[in-house]
Amino acid sequence: MLKRLLITSATHSLGLRVCKLLVDKYELIQATSEDLPVFMQEKYVKIPKGVNPTFAHEMLKLALDNGCNYILPLQLAEIESLSESLLLFEEYGIQVICPSRAQLQELDILPNPAKELPLSVLLDKTDLLLHRQVDIEVNGLGVVSDSDIDFFLAVAR
């Protein structure tokens, strides 16, 4: 049985790209804070903007209601909000695939990476897309350098 992954910004070009990479590996719950035409509202779950003060709690409720194992936030404001609540999600058995608040301050941010750049989804030193171990301590969507030392956090902007 596939694990459930909730991905934000699923209507953004980066979100669409990541969904294509994950669709065979996870049962995807696609979420967006964008206003959608009626015909698209069945496919996507509406979420608040990442700057909303209740964002983390609403995401927790949504993840619990949908039985999600993972949340992959793609916008910087969403990542900033959820990075402060990682322990809260872990208490409910949900892993948020994003850096900690402290790591976020140190990371280089790569908005809308070019399609030529290979993406990685890192969680606990494993690339979930390539099923390989990496020696990088950061969780999140991004690009791993050719040397496998540096990680650039990819965000939808």
Molecular structure report:
By secondary structure, the protein is an alpha/beta fold. It has a single domain, classed as Rossmann fold, CATH 3.40.50.20. The chain is built from 5 helices and 11 strands; from the N terminus they run E-H-E-E-H-E-H-H-E-H-E-E-E-E-E-E. The strands form 2 sheets. A 6-stranded mixed β-sheet has the order 6-11-10-7-8-9, with no helix packed on it. It has a 5-stranded parallel β-sheet with strand order 3-2-1-4-5. The longest helix has 11 residues. The chain is globular and about 45 Å long. The chain starts with a strand and ends with a strand. The model has no long low-confidence stretch (mean pLDDT 95).
Keywords, please?
157 residues; alpha/beta; Rossmann fold; 6-stranded mixed beta sheet; 5-stranded parallel beta sheet; 25% strand
